[in-house]
Design brief:
Number of helices: 5
Helix content: 55-70%
Order of helices and strands: HHHHH
Oligomer: single chain
Mean pLDDT: 83
Distance between the termini: 134 Å
Radius of gyration: 47 Å
Number of strands: 0
Largest sheet: none
Amino acid sequence: MAPERETGRERTPAGATATTRPRARLDQPRPPRRRLLPEWDPEAFGRLSERIARFLGTGRFIVWMTIVIIVWVLWNIFAPGDLKFDNYPFIFLTLMLSLQASYAAPLILLAQNRQDDRDRVNLEQDRKQNERSIADTEYLTREIAALRIGLGEVATRDWIRSELQDLVKEMEERRDGHVVFPAERSAGRDVEDR
């Protein structure tokens, strides 16, 4: 085999290692690409639409809209001829009102959709909270029932007092020489009760 001769040209890698463009590093984010269309934040646009829809639903908007229409009509009726910009059928006013309505309707619908989404989330959270409250209530009810059952087996103060009084009577009777056994006492009570 003949040794390779240096020809003054750099060798370019061939095969899988050959690249004509710089390699992208995986440990760094890609640089942002230029876009033809502008980007906007849908959340910010939604908030803006809600603000506009809230304003369109106020009395202030109705008053200002009425004032603008009255001034428009009066100006185009009583102004000198060369200063009028919309003569009697007020076609330009109709166009402006139609344009305003065509933008107001979708903005109001967008605001209503966002409110529906918020209401749906709130309803789901309320439902989950109610389920947790019901589960907690059922748990506490079972615990109280278990405590009542447990207390039913515990000696109460009145029961202990009556047992102690019976023992004191029995001891007094033994001391006096008259011994009454518990079986006789209960039998005597039965006879007395009849």
